[in-house]
């Protein structure tokens, strides 16, 4: 099994990033490496330029994301951790696959419609062809599996369509070039909502810093944010059904369950009937306990840019070694002459 997954380098990493994605990457690393497989995790910095961005921020955010991944448990010795920009085979393969991808396929992509909005004429070509680069990201490494959530299923289906059409058009029936990656369904990721609005996802773009728990927050800040988190006056119910219609209460209980590695029902069995005056301090203490070691390691790593660059350089060298054979076979299959 070879798993490939990417994440865009964004700044101000928060609890939602950790519980929603990064923690699952660590779990996959443990499981897949124990089974003799490989995990390739990359920072999708080339995807990031499909939208307006500040170059200096992209550089710092890429390093910050590496620090966060390592602090959370990604081991560069057990997983291949790299950024796209250091593996130019991603962009090369995307161009080669552009001849196989179809405009109609890309026009139907939900993410294109959402991000381009009404001003499609003003959107970048990179945003339109973003899914072809995503296909190249996984086909380049002959990935057998790709972790997918609901928002990425369409992209994996497109990658499979591109791979299948290329194999049909340019390869012998008994010698396909590309592996068709299967979806890998990780354990259900916790969907973490804003501390100020239980109907909105926790996000770095929220203007209020009180809406999120940042990976850089110290213990006092975490306790203060939890204490001031929006709630309602009712005590916690004893059963999960009692959280319906109580978005903020449901969010805080879900955070506790995710951090404690237990179920919402188990949390309510312990705290049902109690008010938030008792639950919030318990949640704050649990957050501090779980995040403090990660926070300390993250802050240390973030300062050492040379070490972060070395991690990316080493990972990129390993990734290129895996990528080059597939790329060369693709050139050959297309009849392109290489010196």
Outline the fold blueprint.
Layout: E1 2-7, H1 15-34, E2 38-43, H2 45-48, H3 55-72, E3 80-83, H4 89-98, H5 103-107, H6 110-116, H7 125-139, E4 145-147, H8 153-170, E5 182-184, H9 219-227, H10 247-260, H11 264-271, H12 276-303, H13 305-334
Parallel strand pairs: 1-2, 2-3, 4-5
Mean pLDDT: 94
Helix content: 40-55%
Shape: elongated
Provide a count of the helices: 13
Largest sheet: 3 strands, parallel
Stretches with pLDDT under 50, minimum 5 residues: none
Over all CA atoms, what is the radius of gyration? 22 Å
Biggest sheet, strands in spatial order? 1-2-3
Helix/strand/pairing category: mainly alpha
Beta strands, count: 5
Order of helices and strands: EHEHHEHHHHEHEHHHHH
Tell me the β content. 5-15%
> Between the first and last Cα atoms, what is the distance in angstroms?
33 Å
Describe this structure in words.
The chain has helices at residues 15-34, 45-48, 55-72, 89-98, 103-107, 110-116, 125-139, 153-170, 219-227, 247-260, 264-271, 276-303, 305-334, and strands at residues 2-7, 38-43, 80-83, 145-147, 182-184. The mean pLDDT is 94. The protein has a three-stranded parallel β-sheet with strand order 1-2-3. Strands 4-5 form a two-stranded parallel sheet. It has 13 helices and five strands. The chain is elongated and about 70 Å long. Helix 1 links the parallel strand 1 (2-7) and strand 2. It is mainly α.
Index terms:
339 residues; mainly alpha; elongated
């Amino acid at each position: 099994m070879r798993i490939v997954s990417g994440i865009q380098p964004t700044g101000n990493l928060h609890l939602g990033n950790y519980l929603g994605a990064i923690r699952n990457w660590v779990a996959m690393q443990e499981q897949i490496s124990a089974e003799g497989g490989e995990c390739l995790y990359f920072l999708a910095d080339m995807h990031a330029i499909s939208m307006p961005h500040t170059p200096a921020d992209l550089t710092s955010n890429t390093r910050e994301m590496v620090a966060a991944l390592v602090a959370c448990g990604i081991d560069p010795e057990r997983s291949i951790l790299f950024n796209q920009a250091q593996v130019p085979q991603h962009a090369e393969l995307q161009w080669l696959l552009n001849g196989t991808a179809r405009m109609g396929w890309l026009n139907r992509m939900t993410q294109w419609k959402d991000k381009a909005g009404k001003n499609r004429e003003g959107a970048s070509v990179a945003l339109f062809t973003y899914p072809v680069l995503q296909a190249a990201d996984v086909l380049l490494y002959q990935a057998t599996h790709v972790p997918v959530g609901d928002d990425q299923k369409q992209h994996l289906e497109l990658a499979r369509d591109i791979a299948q059409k290329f194999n049909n058009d340019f390869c012998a029936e008994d010698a396909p070039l590309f592996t068709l990656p299967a979806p890998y369904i990780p354990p259900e990721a916790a969907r973490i909502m804003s501390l100020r609005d239980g109907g909105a996802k926790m996000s770095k773009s929220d203007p209020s810093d009180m809406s999120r728990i940042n990976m850089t927050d110290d213990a006092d800040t975490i306790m203060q944010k939890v204490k001031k988190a929006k709630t309602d006056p009712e005590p916690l119910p004893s059963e999960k059904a009692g959280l319906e219609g109580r978005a903020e209460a449901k969010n805080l209980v879900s955070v506790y369950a995710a951090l404690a590695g237990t179920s919402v029902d188990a949390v309510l069995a312990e705290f049902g009937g109690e008010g938030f005056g008792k639950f919030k301090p318990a949640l704050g203490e649990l957050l501090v306990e779980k995040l403090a070691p990660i926070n300390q390691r993250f802050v240390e790593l973030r300062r050492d840019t040379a070490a972060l660059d070395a991690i990316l350089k080493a990972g990129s060298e390993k990734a290129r070694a895996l990528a080059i054979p597939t790329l060369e076979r693709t050139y050959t299959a297309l009849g392109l002459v290489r010196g």
